Structures are given as structure tokens and as C-alpha cells.
Amino acid sequence: xxxxxxxxxxxxxxxxxxxxxxxxxxxxxxxxxxxxxxxxxxxxxxxxxxxxxxxxxxxxxxxxxxxxxxxxxxxxxxxxxxxxxxxxxxxxxxxxxxxxxxxxxxxxxxxxxxxxxxxxxxxxxxxxxxxxxxxxxxxxxxxxxxxxxxxxxxxxxxxxxxxxxxxxxxxx
Length: 172
Hints:
The protein is mainly alpha-helical. It has 7 helices and 2 strands; from the N terminus they run H-H-H-H-H-H-H-E-E. A two-stranded antiparallel ribbon has the order 1-2. A hairpin with a 3-residue loop joins strand 1 (151-157) and strand 2 (161-167). Belongs to the alkaline ceramidase family.
């Protein structure tokens, strides 16, 4: 989770550049951050530390994304806010599962198996954050291709699954 969020942070801060260069300072910082968080977490085995470090990265991603959809490409608000909402729903369910784990487990034992499976909120955390992350990748790709003067379009496979199609820039 930490490593993939660092990739998101790097991409969001590098999407508005013209030259084919590498921001070595940011790259060094993000790699160092990931390695230090991993080492400290493995030493301490304290989930709250990992959650705070992960939350810090997610906050940076959210702030940068809000900046992009408010000031740079406001017509992308729907996609930006949808990805954030889906991700936050997963985060909310994960916390409900963490706080009420024992009570939910006892409740699931009394429910039919199908209902019990649907109330596995930790699983919903993975599903919803995965979907939210996918939508955020779509937003990042859309932002970068717009900046490069391509013509991206979101299409829906089977009417439900969004994908990005990119046409080359028009010759001026």
C-alpha cells in the first residue's frame, strides 16, 4: 500500500512537465519514505504507525487531486470525486471492521453464510480501494494525456467499466 501510494504521488506531481526528465529528489524521498516506513513497521509491528504513514500519503494524493480537478481541469470533478468517494467508503468499512471486529464476527455466526460473507468489511475495503485506485489511475492518465495535448475519452466497456481511449493530438 505504501509503495503504490508513492507511485501515485510521483505521477501526480510529474504529470505537468514537458521534458522527459526524472525528478531525482522526489524519487529519492519517496523511496526512502517507503523503505523507512517498512523497516519501522517490521520492527515495531504497530498497525497504527502504518495506518498514519499510509494516511499521510493518501492525504497528499487527495490534496493534489483536488487541486487538479478544481483549478486545472474542473470538468474532471466527477471522475475525481467518484474515485475519492469509492476509496473513502472502503476506508470507512475497514475502520468499522477494525472497531467492531469481535461483535461482527459473533453476528456473522448467527447469519446465513451468504449474508455473513457480504458483511466481511475488510474484504470490502480491498474491493472498494482497488476500484477507487483504478478510477484514480484513470484520472491521472486523463490529466497527463490532456497536458500532452492528446484527446482522451472515457468509454465504458459493457456500459459499466470505464477505460481511457487516447487519440493523438491534432496537427495544428
